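Dear colleague,

Thank you for sharing your sequence with our group. We've completed the structure prediction you requested, and as agreed, I am returning the results in plain text so they can be pasted directly into your records. Please verify that the sequence below matches your submission; if there's any discrepancy, let me know and we will rerun it promptly.
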Amino acid sequence: MKYTAADLAQILDLPSPTEEQRRIIESDLTPGITIAGAGSGKTTVVSQRVLYLVANGLVEPQQIIGLTFTNKAAGEMSEKISSHFAKFRSKNTNTAPSTEMPTIQTYNSFASGLTSEYGATIGVEPDTQVLDDASAIELADQVVATAHPDFIPPGKSRSSLVKELIHLSGQANEHLCSPEDIITYLNRCLYAFLNSEFIDDCIATIKNKRSIGAQEKEDYSSFLRELTASYLDAPGQLWPEDVTEQVFTLLETLGICPAIADVRNKKRLAHLLGAFAALKKEKRAMQFSDQVSFAYQAMKADPNIVHSERAKWKVVFLDEYQDTSDSQVKMLKTLFAGLPITAVGDPRQSIYAWRGASELNIEGFPRDFASPGHDTASYTMTTSFRNSQRVLSVANAVAGRLPEDSEDTRLKPITVNNEVTSPLGNIEVSVTQGKAHPTYVSDQLENLVEWMRDREGHRAVLVRKRMHFAPVAQALTAAGFDVQVVGDGGGMDDPFVADIVAILNVASDPHAVEHLMRLLTGRVCTLGAHDLRTFNSLVKNANAEAPATPLTAIECVDSFANREYAELSEAANVRLRSLAHKLRDVRKNHGGVIHMIRTIIRVFDMSYELASLPTERADSHRANIDTFVSAVSSYVARNPMASMTAVLAWLELANEHDAISSPPESLDPSAVTIMTVHASKGLEFDAVALPFLTTGDLPTKPRSYRAWLALGELPYPLRGDATKLPRLDLAQRAHTSVSDMKNLFDETEADKEDIEDFVDASNVGHSELPLRDQIALYHRRQERRLAYVAVTRAKQQLWLGASYWGHRKSANQLSPFLTEAITVLNQAGARIEIPECDAEAPENTPVEVQWPAVISETEHKKQSRTRDFVRQQVPLDLSATPDSGDEGFHRVVARVQKIMSDARPQPPRTPQRMSTTDVVKYRADADAYMREIQRPMPQEPSEYAALGTAFHAWVEQHYGQSALTDIHEAHMRKALPQRVRKRFDSLVSTFEGSNYANRVPHAVELPFELELGGRKVPGKIDAVFKDGDRVTVVDWKTGKKPSEEILDTMATQLAIYVQAVQKLPEYAGCEVGAEFYFVGSDETFAPDTLPSLDIEGILDQAP
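Please find the predicted structure tokens below.
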């Protein structure tokens, strides 16, 4: 060859490649797989490999294609290749490569191009559009809303069903399964239960079930025996369909063998999946996951497509191969098998199993892409150019128990002439008891803060769970660090936000029982176990009385508004009655999702709860609520026609995928970055802290041991990576025992100890383990890969932390990843000593507390007696020393007098979040506004506030842009007090006769959030009208036009609205005006000029 890898490095002014890198760059044009460890320079090697092939005339640039996962990665690879080509041309004008460039794309964009070009082969129209998340949710919601009740899995909210449907759709596409494939397999699972042994065991189980009466046991047993008697000797698939339906319905109703109910619910969801696919086809729409599936189906339908595409490319590069899905591998194999392919990946960094990725794909590469007559080459890149020696030793220790780990692929430090030149690096370990700290939350985070003070460069704190963002950010902020939180989840981990989401679900969906349980057991109702059982019995009894129209638990809650139940405690009746009335209030105030959220905050007294908390905690909760409201506002602004179900489904999906808050375009190197380990993939930092290294945090425990029986999961036997997953194939053999099915998911001996230690000690193969242990081991290995990624983000400085005590009732176990790190560091000469765990939790452990506290009946009586006693005493004049009393009494009085004399009223501070109305109030009378926020008092509900809400909702419906549900005028009117209904009728009549009635608004109920004077000012604009480049903001007022003085103050509202609209990209460059329409007097007020006031200045002057 004219140029060697070393020659090209010299031309590019780059270090000479290592021997491992040289072998890859200069390899033959045959398929090859490279295991490239973290920080080993894979992008550099791939880009030099491209230049090597082109510079030596082995291939033209336009005959090379490279595929990766993200636009960012594709951009970086393109930029590096382009830079190499440019530099090479500048120094070798006679032999420079052509000006053409290789094609670098993401896997999905490549599949999208194939579908666009060849989709017509399988009936995909050329104008088929890719759905964004909001559009996919809307279509899925249509499917759920219009489905036959027989196809609706019971006990799930509509938004949860939408989420599960989209999840199953994605998995089915990733593994190339049709709805019919799923239904066929699930039928086989059900047939396996239809045999005489299992039916006999079901009858025995019914007779032993305590919750069923004696006569009912006899009736059910006789019915089941008579129903199945004629078919017990026949295979399950030959039983009549009506008989199997009756059998399974009875067993599902009685709660016999929950696995049957799980399979039937998944079958119902699979039917919805078929309807979803049909609706997408009708709408000429597809999801991102459809693209690869369609491309593969087209190639299988027409082999000429494969020949055509293969002719375009002579060399293929596949990046991050460990993250490819089953469908992507099958598409790539169909197209490129046998071509010179360079695939690069690291199975130890395969952390996206939840979205279809499998480390199995690297293992199968030689089989999938082999060239006839040639072996597939295997390469390694083990020199880490990122990590220090000590960081590498910890990374290798963490990866050491993974099945794909081997000595040949472990990361090694940089070595020159057999001498290690990588820096030694620094690792600190901190294990504390878990005491609370007045400034830094806990002793663990105090140590993290102190370590971070001495770090330089780009620093990061990586955590497994978003719930740890808040305490870490609070500790670092208190220490004076600037922090940048990435992927904060929109505040969804905050208990107040979680309650708001639960209330939204319960108020809008009678089937949202899982969300109701949060309200019943959490802060809202705090029902005890006895009252919960009684409540469930009441629901069952209510349905027994009305079997034709079964009531959901949510509908039963509404009955508490008007009656009490003797079976429940007095406290439970009071709390359920309060919940029923509050839910009614929320439902009546339908004016858009943001309005509904604010109604929830008001009706459920969250502001007063927050005011009662310590300032730091209250501010943290308020910030999370603000983040949540801002995220939802942005979603509604982008999707103004979104239904309530769509909004709630988006929240569930986005929360699972860390996609509620938009990620920043770039990280701030001067701030401490706080992010999840998942989000840190592909990044590197000078210093990394990994706190909360305890079992349950990192590693986490499996969310469920139900495997694929969880509703939205594709059955494992249908997945391409089934051999690497827990073994659960219910269609494989006949089931003969109810208890055997139950035992599949019961706790095992391994639950009592570390799962990896248990497996190592028992010397049992993975497939021979009980199902629960297989699930635990599979999950642990996913967590171990995640820990490996976390450690390898650090260049030189690494901090590892844990506390024995925290929010759990029992002491934490140190993470096995932490103990393995300590062991390897001590073996290298470190002297890390770990303190023993205290027998009891520290008195001031930082814990999550319940507020308001649940007071027992005994404590309540004691408080009442104390209160009565105090009220009977003669008032004491504390301004003078009392003449009577003993020495102890005088000491108490003196202490009280000192406290009173030292007490100084604290000046009120304006909140960091002020509504538009708050700013107007502040401008009108700052002192009155500050007094109001200093001592907030609950206000009696205003009839005219209800009138305004109803009228605004009517206007929104009038324009056909109601963002939530179809709200009928009759319902709005009926919800109003009798004496204001005529007023409502008058307002409607006046509006219908106004100029606004026939105008078409550009936006209605447009939410916004401004940053003014260091404070957030949210609001919602009633209507925006656009006429060419002229935009008019209109705010409806149900009252009459006030005096000029009041109008001048009110104009502040319009000034804020104008500023908000001017910041929106869709109104860029437009002239924006504003006006009030006073419907009460049918008058419009449009100031000639808006107040020449500095809105931000008003807030800057505030305390």
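Summary note from our side: The first strand starts at residue 32 and ends at 36.

Kind regards,
the structure core
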